[in-house]
Amino acid sequence: MNKTARARRIASIVEPAYEIFHKGPKCYYCGDSANCMDHCPPLSLVFKVGTQEMIDSGSKLFKIASCNECNLLLGNRDLRTPMERVMYLYGAIQRKHSKALELPYWDDDEYAELDISLTSVIDNTRLVKSWVNRRLEFMEMMHNL
């Protein structure tokens, strides 16, 4: 059985036990546009441990609206509560985008002396830095980090 078929089989068995924790147009974790659902805890973990065993151990099973990047960064990590997932993501986003976050400030005179190819790289990195900072600020504000 290939990975896609296995994932579908797991989802069809375990998915009905999950309840909606957050549904909407924005990612619960970072505030970006939500385009998928994160499973908390991950489907693969629930399938491995067993749905009833997870519930009996006090774990709640949630589906959470998320953006693709947050969902991919979380993967199948054994993070069982939405808050554990938020705290993990906060660091993971910082690590993933550390180069953009460390972009030095270029004053107007320095910037004017640069070649067009370098200025376009700087401009793009500034956009990424702004986007990442907005997501991190959302996490700090909404999740009290």
Protein described:
By secondary structure, the chain is mainly α. The protein has one domain (3-143). 59% of the residues lie in helices and 10% in strands. The chain has helices at residues 3-14, 43-49, 51-56, 68-74, 82-96, 98-101, 108-113, 116-143; strands at residues 19-22, 36-40, 62-66. The chain has a 3-stranded mixed sheet with strand order 1-3-2. The protein is elongated. The N and C termini lie far apart (42 Å). 22% of the residues are buried. The mean pLDDT is 90.
Layout of helices and strands:
Blueprint: H1 3-14, E1 19-22, E2 36-40, H2 43-49, H3 51-56, E3 62-66, H4 68-74, H5 82-96, H6 98-101, H7 108-113, H8 116-143
Parallel strand pairs: 1-3
Antiparallel strand pairs: 2-3
Helix pairs in contact: 1-2, 5-8
Short description:
By secondary structure, the chain is mainly alpha-helical. It has eight helices and three strands. A three-stranded mixed beta sheet has the order 1-3-2.
Q: What descriptors fit this protein?
A:
145 residues, mainly alpha, three-stranded mixed beta sheet
Strand tally, please? 3
H/E topology pattern: HEEHHEHHHHH
Morphology call: elongated
Q: What gyration radius follows from the Cα positions, in whole Å? A: 19 Å
Mean pLDDT: 90
